[in-house]
Design the sequence.
């Protein structure tokens, strides 16, 4: 899809970020490297594509790419030689060092058309140290034609050496109510609220969620509650968890624990991740010990990190289930 | 699009095009050849985004149009058809139909507008050079280009025009090759372009005939060379070339003139026992003689002595035998002149007959 003038119509919350880019374009002072950061599912890639399209478009006029010139047609066919998205051949994996080096080597040739070249690098926050370092020299002394657009979900995880070489553009989450309203145009109205909750307010993520994940989340949260009240056997529960994705499960657990901790520290109506759980959360929070909750939260964060490597998932799920179960007993 | 032609007419240009198409592409459409039929002329285009080749041929056109079809499959089909087989090609419902006698083939197509063709617009500088001159300019220098050097501008060939002088320079940081020729009628003004290694090799391959002229067109992004039915384009290397004039000594005091073949043969033999990695050979000069010495870590030694024209004070200096051999080997005259600015400095090798071809080899410590 080539987002032209409909970028802001389709994704209205990008207005703020686009206006920063618009200023660069209007002043004719496009930085050699941009770091676009914001939570997953907020349209960073769409923003980057629209920006790249405008830079490469041969039509002089307009805030957005014309969508009709030769350059726009090549972009739409994804055959534009001066536009690159550096993505790992394996989906979901971080880009390897060799690929980054290949891209840099290919930049030693001049661009094919005109004088602009755009390189989009998604998830720079996940680049390993060597890949990130191989980028530094190019980011520091770029050629005149090339503009890098780096995308990151956690700007803090981007090495400071890279961050300091980029102009930053933040994509922020729209207010939940606005997201819900936007979402109603795309999904059944009754699902909108729940989807926004599950996606933590990220509109595109909320839209793309599979309905079965909504049901799964419900099951997962119920099982946490069952464990924390001592009503279920942890090993059995862990066995049932295997059918859900481990990443999904751990992120649910973290959101649930954070809610409990929040309610424990400051009881009363609070902004929580899972408002649909309602009063059952507060009741539970009142019963559990803060120290125990933090202990499980530490475990959960550890599990999240381990998941990006080679973790024994069965063991990990059992460990988490047992930890949840212990909160019920208030063990040390 | 519809045209008819014969197997022979289509095969040769198609095989040339397939030469530049990579076997594994980053974009699927780069595996295709772009066909464009216009006024009875069929234009075939292939590119790997670094270089692009366009060939033109006369066909019996029936309907104009353009498309892209898988290049390797098309060339295989055409190649394997019997000699002098007639061909009728046609686009119907976005498929490429090829018919020859009782054989029929249907190939998939991708729209021509999606093909990342090089810019066809006017270039900044246009000049004509005899094919023979350009070929010589490239043959004499290309071997000195660097391979995968981090100084990426060295991984290419510098093409420079200055007034009526055409100059090519290649260097890998250890040696440098320089060729100059006067080309009457070369458009005045000056221009510099660095042709990437691949572009240089491809272009040299295409410069076959010794007759005729090649029209060279330069823009800031690319070089285009037009020959009869061929148009070759290459992207240029980003950035500026190294200041090669600075490394060439302006005056040289010691001149050694040797028989080229004798020197080459002696060097080749001595190099056998040089260190395999560094290929170091020592040159020991005295009045009238040049001794070449090499030894390797196994303490094996080689020594040769040849008669040379030299009457200065004796000195010695070491070189990489391969670099010396490359330079001496590409000379054409019977005599080779080796000039040194001072002892332990680089050596300039040139032909006695044509001092506009020059090689500079850096010394090495032995």
Sequence:
């Amino acid at each position: 899809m080539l987002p032209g003038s409909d970028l802001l119509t389709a994704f209205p919350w990008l207005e703020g970020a686009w206006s920063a880019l618009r200023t660069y374009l209007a002043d004719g002072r496009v930085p050699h490297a941009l770091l676009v950061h914001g939570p997953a599912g907020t349209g960073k890639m769409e923003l980057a594509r629209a920006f790249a399209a405008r830079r490469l478009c041969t039509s002089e006029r307009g805030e957005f790419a014309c969508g009709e010139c030769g350059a726009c047609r090549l972009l739409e066919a994804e055959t534009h030689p001066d536009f690159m998205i550096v993505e790992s051949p394996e989906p979901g994996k971080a880009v390897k060092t060799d690929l980054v080096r290949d891209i840099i080597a290919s930049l030693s040739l001049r661009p094919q058309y005109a004088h602009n070249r755009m390189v989009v690098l998604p998830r720079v926050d996940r680049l390993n140290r060597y890949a990130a370092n191989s980028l530094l020299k190019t980011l520091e002394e770029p050629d005149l034609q090339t503009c890098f657009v780096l995308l990151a979900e956690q700007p803090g995880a981007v090495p400071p050496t890279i961050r300091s070489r980029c102009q930053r553009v933040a994509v922020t989450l729209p207010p939940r109510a606005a997201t819900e309203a936007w979402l109603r145009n795309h999904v059944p109205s009754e699902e909108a609220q729940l989807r926004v909750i599950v996606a933590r307010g990220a509109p595109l993520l909320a839209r793309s969620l599979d309905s079965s994940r909504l049901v799964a989340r419900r099951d997962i949260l119920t099982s946490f509650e069952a464990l924390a009240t001592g009503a279920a056997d942890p090993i059995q529960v862990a066995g049932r968890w295997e059918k859900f994705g481990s990443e999904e499960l751990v992120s649910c657990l973290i959101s649930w624990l954070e809610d409990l901790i929040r309610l424990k520290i400051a009881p009363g109506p609070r902004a929580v991740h899972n408002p649909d759980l309602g009063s059952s959360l507060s009741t539970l929070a009142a019963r559990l010990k803060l120290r125990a909750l933090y202990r499980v939260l530490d475990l959960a964060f550890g599990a999240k990190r381990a998941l990006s490597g080679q973790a024994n998932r069965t063991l990990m799920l059992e460990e988490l289930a047992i930890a949840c179960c212990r909160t019920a007993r208030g063990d040390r | 699009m519809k045209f008819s032609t014969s197997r022979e007419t289509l095969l040769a240009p198609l095989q040339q095009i397939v030469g530049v198409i990579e076997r594994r592409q980053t974009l699927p459409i780069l595996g295709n050849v772009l066909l464009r039929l216009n006024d009875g002329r069929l234009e075939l285009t292939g590119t790997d985004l670094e270089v692009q080749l366009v060939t033109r041929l006369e066909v019996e056109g029936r309907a104009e149009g353009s498309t892209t079809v898988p290049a390797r499959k098309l060339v295989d089909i055409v190649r394997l058809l019997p000699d002098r087989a007639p061909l009728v090609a046609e686009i119907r419902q976005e498929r490429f139909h090829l018919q020859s006698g009782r054989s029929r083939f249907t190939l998939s197509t991708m729209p021509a507008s999606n093909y990342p063709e090089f810019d066809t617009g006017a270039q900044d500088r246009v000049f004509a050079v005899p094919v023979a001159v350009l070929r010589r300019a490239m043959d004499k220098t290309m071997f000195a280009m660097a391979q995968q050097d981090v100084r990426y501008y060295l991984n290419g060939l510098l093409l420079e025009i200055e007034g009526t002088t055409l100059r090519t320079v290649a260097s890998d940081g250890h040696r440098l090759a320089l060729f100059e020729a006067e080309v009457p009628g070369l458009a005045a003004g000056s221009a510099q372009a660095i042709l990437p290694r691949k572009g240089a090799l491809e272009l040299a391959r295409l410069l076959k005939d010794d007759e005729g002229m090649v029209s060279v067109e330069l823009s800031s992004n690319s070089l285009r060379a037009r020959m009869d039915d061929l148009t070759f384009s290459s992207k240029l290397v980003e950035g500026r070339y190294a200041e090669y004039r600075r490394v060439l000594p302006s005056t040289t005091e010691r001149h050694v003139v040797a028989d080229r073949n004798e020197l080459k043969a002696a060097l080749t033999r001595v190099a056998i026992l040089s260190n395999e990695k560094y290929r170091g050979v020592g040159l020991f000069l005295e009045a009238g003689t040049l001794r070449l010495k090499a030894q390797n870590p196994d303490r094996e030694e080689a020594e040769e002595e040849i008669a040379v024209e030299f009457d200065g004070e004796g000195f010695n200096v070491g070189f990489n035998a391969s670099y010396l051999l490359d330079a001496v080997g590409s000379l054409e005259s019977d005599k080779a002149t080796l000039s040194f600015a001072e002892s332990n400095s680089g050596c300039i090798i040139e032909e006695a007959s044509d001092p506009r071809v020059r090689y500079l080899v850096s010394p090495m410590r032995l």
Notes: Chain A touches chain B through 18 residues (CB under 8 Å). The first helix of chain A runs from residue 7 to 10.
